[in-house]
Amino acid sequence: MFKTVLKIAVVLTFVSMGTIAIAQQTTAGSDPKVSAAPVASNVQAAAVATTLAPADNAATDAKASKPVLRELSPWSMFLSADIIVKAVMIGLAFASLVTWTVFIAKMVELTVVQSRLRGALSKIADSRSLAEAQFALGSSGTILSRFLAAAMREARLSAGISSDAGVKERAASSFAEIVRAESRRIRLGMGVLATIGATSPFVGLFGTVWGIMNSFIGISKSQTTNLAVVAPGIAEALLATAIGLVAAIPAVIIYNHFARVTKAYLELVGRSSGAAGRLLSRDLDRTHVSSVGRVGSHAAE
């Protein structure tokens, strides 16, 4: 009985040992599979990375080759322009400033002198002599006062000369000198407008040519004809021509306007000269009439 039990125990022992061995083999066989899974995943990740790497490099190269967009506002174009183009733009902007300064100054001047001269002509419309006209004007300071003063001075210097034609001729010469001086004075600044209007487009064109030349040099250096690369330089160059036209067009318009206004003012100056000449002629005639009357009275006595 005991032997039978012992045999059964030995058999069970061997069976349990075989089971444990089989379990260990099973565990040992399963461990490589478990450890191989991360390795397989790492290999797959490396393969994916290797596949995506050329695409990423291509995208990076495309971004690097893509031109950077620049702001093309007038101020940014001025700041990024060549030094020569900048100098041209600054000169044209200064010329435009001079144009509007002359416009304001001449407009005020012509308005004031025209209104004052018209008022002076209306004051002496009923005057009968040079002295009466001067009294009516007072200290107005208009060119008509200068005409009257020149006429009276010539009459005083020609006292005792019987030739009225000579007195009138000398007075007309004095009037002509006054008219020429006034014409030169009233046209001050108009020569500047004419110069700006005539030369500003060509100065702007010079800046444009210089800027486009630099743009073509940049094209040759960059070895590309991409419009996004060369367009900013061309736009900066064209801005110089635009500023030149901005300076030239108002200058021409203002010059033509002042030419018409100046012509109207000089016509008033001519009327003033004629008024002073007529008053001088009346004074001369009165002088001769009074002289003839005195001679007649002495003869009657």
If you had to describe this structure to a student in words, what would you say it looks like?
The chain has 301 residues and is mainly alpha-helical. It has two domains: 1-66; 76-296, no CATH class. The chain has eight helices and no strands. The chain has helices at residues 2-65, 74-80, 83-123, 130-137, 143-157, 164-186, 190-222, 227-300. It is rod-shaped, with a radius of gyration of 52 Å.
Brief sketch in words of this structure:
This protein is 88% helix and 0% strand.
Topology, please?
Elements: H1 2-65, H2 74-80, H3 83-123, H4 130-137, H5 143-157, H6 164-186, H7 190-222, H8 227-300
Helix pairs in contact: 2-8, 3-7, 3-8, 4-5, 5-6, 5-8, 6-8, 7-8
**Low-confidence runs:** 1-24, 26-69, 295-300
Write down the oligomeric state.
single chain
Give a quick account of the main beta sheet: strands, pairing sense, barrel closure: none
Number of strands: 0
For the terminal residues, how far apart are their CA atoms? 209 Å
Q: Quote the beta fraction.
A: under 5%
What series of H and E elements makes up the topology? HHHHHHHH
What is Rg? 52 Å
Shape from CA axes? rod-shaped
pLDDT averaged over residues? 75
What portion of residues is helical?
Answer: over 70%
